[in-house]
Amino acid sequence: MAIVSLLLLFVFVYMIIPYVITRIWGLGVTMRGRRGRQIAFTFDDGPDPLHTPKLLDLLKKKRIKATFFVLGGKAERHPELMRRIHREGHQIGIHNYSHLPNWLMSPRHIRNKHVRRSADIIERITGERPTFYRPPWGILNLGDLFALRKYRIVLWSVMGWDWGKKSRNKPLKERILDQLEPGSIILLHDSGDTWGAEPDAPGRMIASLEEVLDTVHIQGYKCVRADELLHKRDGLSNEFSEGFRVG
Ligand SMILES: [Zn+2]
């Protein structure tokens, strides 16, 4: 009985409380920006040798800068792709060393073996140390909010639903435009080998993305990196001032 109570307490403190704090109240994390008609496209789970180059080609053609939340392990295996992402002006953020949920690990382990380790790898390859972090599936434990306080934790406001079977039901354009508003941070994936994803899903996403980019352009949106959307690049950003600045 005591074990069951302890387990329930653990689930409540470690999983449910941080879920409510971050995903429902939005505290300690960033889910959107507030700047005019700017939006930010973000791509998780790469770099992927098959899909990422095609995505980079499209972004180059459309002259759009985006943000890639990469896995440290894949960055290590594909340094040339990392250099290309960086060289072409995109932002690189961290998405753990491997795609493991933070609920199964201690905050210390996550900070040292996933976030710092990935930051070291990315810095070694690109010369620039990432400061933005997005946990796999957006899952945080309570200790992460303290252990990772030096990093800006960025989630999303628009879910592209591009990774699995659901992505076949409704065109990507509709899925994104239905939810889009100024300051949106859009979540998509440039790798299909994560648990629960379909291997060819990124191919479908990239094939549909051009139309999405053309449409948001016509609607007057400017696509920027997440750090630009959140003002970090011009040195004005911090967690609290952002809320007071509109337009
Ligand atoms: Zn992911």
Automatic annotation (TrEMBL):
Residues of the NodB homology domain: 37-224
GO biological process entries: carbohydrate metabolic process
Keyword Mitochondrion recorded: no
CDD domains assigned to the protein according to its UniProt record, in alphabetical order: CE4_NodB_like_3
SUPFAM superfamilies: Glycoside hydrolase/deacetylase
Transmembrane parts of this sequence: 6-27
Pfam families found in the cross-reference section: Polysacc_deac_1 (PF01522)
Keywords on record: Membrane, Transmembrane, Transmembrane helix
GO molecular function: hydrolase activity, acting on carbon-nitrogen (but not peptide) bonds
UniProt cross-references to InterPro entries, sorted A to Z: Glyco_hydro/deAcase_b/a-brl, NODB_dom, Polysacc_deacetylase_ArnD
Domain of life: Bacteria
PANTHER family, A to Z: 4-DEOXY-4-FORMAMIDO-L-ARABINOSE-PHOSPHOUNDECAPRENOL DEFORMYLASE ARND-RELATED, GLYCOSYL TRANSFERASE-RELATED
Record protein name field: Polysaccharide deacetylase familiy protein
Lineage of source species: Bacteria, Bacillati, Bacillota, Bacilli, Bacillales
